[in-house]
Amino acid sequence: MRKKVCIIHTGGTIGMQKTAQGYAPQKGSINASIAEIKELSSEEMPYYDLIDYDPLLDSSKISIKEWVKIAHDIEERYHEYDGFVILHGTDTMAYTASALSFMLDGLDKPVIITGSQIPLCEIRNDARDNLIAALLIAAESQIPEVCLYFGNKLFRGNRATKISSDELIAFDSPNYPPLAEAGVRIEINKKELRKKGQKLDVKMFQNQQIAVLKIFPGIQFEVFENIVTDHLGGIVFEAFGVGNIPESDSLIRILRKAEKNGTVIVVCTQCLRGSVSIGTYEASSMLVESGAVSGYDMTVEAAVAKLYYLLSQGYQIEKVKKLMQTDLRGELS
Ligand code: ASP
């Protein structure tokens, strides 16, 4: 029997049209572009329904509100479809994929997020291939995960990161192997997949104040001292190497203030590959002393989404810190 997939179109280049101000989403236009793809009516393809969001967004505008809407829409239709394809802009696709991986607890079918660097309306594009492969993969019952498909590879959503602003291989998963590769055939890397969940349990996010601070040589932490208020739930530090940060009095003041206010500090690395382990060098000892936690090999996108998730559950700070360092959805090794 032909499978059934629900496509949720949130915006992004894939469905954009040329306008005088540059590429922009246009309500309804993706229906016509998709209808022109003859392959989609082939018996080998799943049936699909399309939900076109209004407004359609450039993904730079996507935030908690849209993540909640996507999660709601999947939950509402969960039993009607074999899988879901989310069409999304590439700029924040890895954040949305990470967020959905935490929201869709207990998933037992595929949720595949994809988009393109060149829109469907152009003769030469990567949109058509990405869409066709994402639909085929979303009809595969053996992938019970939120994934990101791009440039012939399927990645675990919360392991993916955008690596190029203008190449067709725009994403990678530096710390986890691809879950599938689309060559002559679509080969699924079964041993890397997560186990099927028992029952979908959607965990909603609320708005949370968090910050991401990239460390750089010469950083004057006093510039950032005022961001640490008692409303700030968490900070992701993008540190050097395995978690090193140049010590200074103002950094110590930030760490003390964060500790006093109950702000969780998570340390990720600026390196594309590898893991953080604070305390390895003296240059991270003040982080350990102040109760900061290692983000290990999590991407910054996953760490941000996980902070939103854990802070939204209303857990005590010690529990947030513990879970931040625990593998919940395959986001850390
Ligand atoms: N600015 C676009 C977006 O993220 C880029 C893309 O889709 O490739 O919505």
Terminus-to-terminus distance: 38 Å
The number of distinct helices, counting runs of at least 4 residues, comes to 8
Remind me, CATH topology of the largest domain? Answer: Rossmann fold
Bound molecules: aspartic acid
Shape summary: elongated
DSSP strand (E) fraction?
15-25%
Largest sheet: 8 strands, mixed
Describe the structure.
The protein is an alpha/beta fold and 333 residues long. The protein has two domains: 4-202, L-asparaginase, N-terminal domain (Rossmann fold), CATH 3.40.50.1170; 209-324, 3-Layer(aba) Sandwich (Rossmann fold). Helix content is 25%, strand content 23%. The chain is built from eight helices and 18 strands. The strands form five sheets. The chain has an eight-stranded mixed beta sheet, sandwiched between helices. A four-stranded parallel beta sheet has the order 15-16-17-18, sandwiched between helices. Helix 2 crosses helix 3 (93-103) and helix 3 (93-103) runs parallel beside helix 7. The chain is elongated and about 65 Å long. The relative contact order is 0.12. The model has no long low-confidence stretch (mean pLDDT 96). Residues 11-13, 58-60, 89-91, 115, 117 line the site of aspartic acid. Aspartic acid binds at residues 11-13, 58-60, 89-91, 115, 117.
